[in-house]
Amino acid sequence: MALNFFSILSSTIFLSIFAIVISLNFRISKFLNLSHGSIFALGAYVAYYTIKSGIVMGMFLAAVLAFFTGVILYLLIKKIGNGIFEATIISLGFAIGLEEILRIAHGKGYYLIVESNLMFAGIDFWEIMQGLMLLIILIALFVVYKSKTGIKLKFVEDDEFLARIYGVDYEKFSLFCIALTSSAIGLLGFLSSTSQALYPGIGWMPLIAGILIAAITALFRSIGLAHYTKIVLIAFVYSLIVSIFLS
Amino acid sequence: MDGKGREGREEEREELNKIEMVGNAVKSYKEFYRKKRRIKLAEFSILATILIFAPFVSGFYLLWLITLGVIYSTYTLAWNWMETMIGRTSLGHAIPFGLAGYLSALLYIYTKNPLLFPLTWIVAGMLSASVLYILSLSRDRVAFVFISFLIGAIIWIFSPLFTITMGGEIYGGEEGFSLPSNPILVTYSLSVVLLLAVFLFFGFLRTSATGLKFTTVRDDERAARLVGVKVNRVKAFCTLISCIITALAGGLYALHFSHVNPEVFSIHIALFPFIATIFFKNDSEIGGVTGSFILVFVSNYLNSIFPQLHLLLYSALLIVSPGIIRWRARKAKLTGGV
To answer: How many folded domains does chain A comprise?
Structure first.
């Protein structure tokens, strides 16, 4: 059976965003953020309620809601957690809590469908948006890493303790990293809600795939933008292998 | 000459004092462990008495729930064994737990012979142990937690894709597999025998010289190696014991429900022992059993209010768990506990 190049590209874009977000959290906030799966589901549920009334408004709402969810997670970790293991466990508890709140809120309609047939030049509008989102993330990372903040960021990635000693405001970086990556994942959930049936556990599979891609990329020990570019390449190889197996 | 002789006598006396001190320390240490053993024996007797009399005073549903508590308690003790002996917190123990049920269900489809179930449970335990043992070889304990979690989650996500076709019928998938139904008293008796045996085995091994040797691996692998402990062998033994007992509990769990589906690999099953032991001392078998029973009964109550409401409790406990564990450690330090 012939491989569908478009489907591989679409999967590469989707998984790249997930893996970049996971990697950013691990490198800057220093823990494996397992709540991204549930925040992704949150974004998708926002789409279910708002897609008919206004796409821009819905996207904004998903991003803002996810941003503040990230802020709550940061505060919990700061208050209770200490170190990579504890922070990861807290994020796991937070993920389960969020998932259950979604499940309880949608007790009866377990699987939900978001309907939208928007097309642009014969391509699904939502997939174009995901591609655009990846492009914006990569450009933003490029700009940040080339700026003064980028040097501080690399310092934090390399040695958080030393960065603190040299006066880098680590907490600010950590807060923004968790909140902004949560926001991106919420938005991704919104944008990919039309391609699958919604249920609260929808985010686990991409989360695990994202962790795998991020972990494989980490073996190359790159820093800065080179690392995130490699994530896209690994996500492509991953998508290719999966589609070969599925065909 | 006389001065040298006096010095020699003083040195000799000092040496004797040292030997006496070491001897006293060993004696008090032995006494401490003997006392611990007596306490464990008392706990065992109380637990055995309660579990023996439970079927006579419980209705069907309560007995069903107690059986579930007993199975989960065994699972918790097996998980805790790995944590307290070699210092590996596994978030992948749902693998032996679920695999045992799956393998026995598969065997049942092909042979229709339930007598071979224990064999499949042991195979499931050994397979899982080999994976977790390889992971435990690295000294990075945080990586062990992440990778075991990741492997467990991958199996959980992909297990609904596992189906077999036989006689034109499809088995497995989201629905899972069926197992023969059996009287509740049979599952209860088997589960109780397993729990009591595990309780006694762990309790005594933990307070023996061998157990002490094992804990050196938990405390400091390098130091353990230096004093002659075969670290990898200890890891292999502890992982194997932990996984086989978990698989036995998982097999009984599948028998208890007469059914097994992908949920046996779920994160909630993987997290159960971690949550059940949050409030109790890690080296206490009775603590693990009490925690498991409380969690099973509270979960059941919450589920009666709203389906799967217990997961909110899991979530809350996980979030506050670092704080509770630190508080417990502080308290143990103040009271002089180990």
So the answer is: 1
